[in-house]
Amino acid sequence: MKELATARVLIEALPYIREFAGKTVVIKYGGHAMVDPGLKERFVLDIILMRYVGIRPIVIHGGGPQISNIMARMGIEPTFVEGQRVTDDETMSVVEMVLVGTVNKEIVGLINRHGGRAVGLSGRDGDLIQAERMKLYKYSGDERPPEIIDIGRVGKVAKVNPAVLEGLERAGFIPVIAPVGVGPEGEAYNINADLVAGAIAGELRAEKLILLTDVPGFMRDGELVESLTREEVLEAIEAGEAKGGMIPKLKACLKALDRGVKKAHIVDGRMEHAILLELFTDKGVGTEITGGAA
Fold first, then answer.
1. Which residue range forms the structural domain that includes residue 149?
2. Mind listing the pLDDT tens digit for each residue in 126-143?
3. CA proximity to 212, closest of 24, 35, 10, 9
4. What is the pTM assigned to this prediction?
């Protein structure tokens, strides 16, 4: 019977609901899940359900494709160096406009329209994400010092101010954060959303960090690796098994684990209700990363 199967699902979820009640779970929202209308709606319903059963979700979102689309419409040609968007002052204005003024407000609106209570923030609000300029180094392969590549207002997280988020959590709100940081002179910085999520999860000692992406998880020889230790992640990066956008995701997971997050997960956001499947089922989905040694 369908009803009996539903009851079994609820019973399977019960111990996890009990375990995670009152705990913070940080979710990086990005990839196809931010584009497909059906996946958008299911994502916000998952977030609302988490809050209703006592879990404290915090959402950090990306928006790279949306930024590129607006730049194209404005006749601005995007430039990337080693996967990082070169962000001059004009580009930074577009980044902030799209992430804070458009993408963030859309997510907040969806959550509120479906019965949740969300508040949109950028890292500049309450000095939430204090940033410093990121430097890229180009090595020539000989004994000469590396060349420093200027990629503009691309930042890295220097410090997170947890008081802003803790106050919102206590009041029952779901924080939705655009990954724009603030520099020492009040200037805005464009920061990789995975790294922001890892830093926030670590600062809050979150129960879990979940990164949504457009692949099943960390892949090796075409097969999903369901579990990795911290040591195995470092080996995978060193061996070149991790490539492209997977590298900042793995580094974000390590940063979070180093700061006390219990587990980190890289999950396929194209899967319906991927977050609930990870949180509330025995098997889970994607790749789980733990802090233990191999």
1. 25-213+247-283
2. 999 999 998 877 665 666
3. 35
4. 0.89
